[in-house]
Amino acid sequence: MKRLLLAAIAVSLLGACHFHSRSWLAQHANDKAPAKVVSDTQPVVKQQGDSASAPAPKLRLWSRATATTPMSRSSFFTSDGRTIGRFLMANDVDVSFARVAVMTSTSEDVKAFARRMLTDHAQVIMSMRTLSTEQDIVPADDDAGRDLRDLSTLQRDSLRALSGRAFDNAYVGMELDRHRAILSMIDDVLLPRARNSELREALTSARPIIAAHIAHAEELLATLSKR
Q1: C-alpha–C-alpha distance, residues 174 and 155, integer Å
Q2: Please, are residues 216 and 119 in contact by the beta-carbon 8 Å criterion?
Q3: CATH fold label, 78-225
């Protein structure tokens, strides 16, 4: 009888322990469980193909579509300051070549042509610099002007290595090509983009001078080829 009583008490104690264990587990079931992840506002990126990560997008600092201030084609590519700077550079190059020709050429006709280049282009430069001061337009350098300067330096070096008839033909030929390029630059680039009315008038006034130089160079080159 005593053994039966002890067995009943043991069974009761085990049941109570089991009940409290289940209750404790139920109360603390979330203690070690990870916190619920709250989704952020970023869109989900769906991967295509394999699970490799997609490359990060490139940072775009500026684009015409996102610019807050509209920029016209003329203001983006040039300005009156760049127009004056490029035109002055072209005339400076002709002056520097003419100086070399006056010192190197043995032909009086070529020397006379070179002196004309010195006089006319020096006057054009003076007029353009006066306009720049009066209109408060600061001449600006650009890539095209720097390219022209670098190319002219190479051409001038090649001229200095020549003498006699070879020098005369090379110099006049270069001047012919250069003046044709200047005339095209005035018509196709500088005049269409010039905003200042005084600048447009100065460029227009320079056209006949450049055209006359082209005619002179063509005539002189034809004469040199017959000698």
Answers
A1: 8
A2: no
A3: Ferritin (1.20.1260)
pLDDT at 141 over 60: yes
Q: Can you tell me the distance from the alpha carbon of 178 to that of 155, in angstroms, rounded to the nearest whole number?
A: 11
Phi, psi of 159 (to 5 degrees): -65, -40
65-69-73-79 Cα dihedral, nearest 10 degrees: -150
Check residue 227 and give its pLDDT.
79
Q: Give the residue among 165, 167, 145, 164 at the shortest CA–CA distance from 156.
A: 167
Structure tokens at 135: 């209109």
Q: Rounded distance, CA 50 to CA 41, Å? A: 25
**Structure letter (DSSP) for residue 66:** T
Give tens-digit pLDDT for 107-127: 999 999 999 999 999 999 999
Residues 102, 111 contacting (CB under 8 angstroms): yes
* pLDDT of 91 over the 90 cut: yes
Digit-coded pLDDT (tens) for 24-33 = 444 444 444 4
Structure tokens, 16? 């109570």
- pLDDT, greater one: 166 or 44: 166
Q: Which 8-state DSSP code applies to residue 47?
A: P
> Contact, 91 vs 209, CB < 8 A?
no
pTM greater than 0.90: no
Q: CA-to-CA distance for 144 and 58, rounded, in angstroms? A: 29
CB-based burial label for 105 (10 Å; 0-12, 13-18, 19+): buried
Q: Reply yes or no on whether the pLDDT at 77 is more than 80.
A: no
**Cα 62 to Cα 60: distance, rounded to the nearest angstrom:** 6
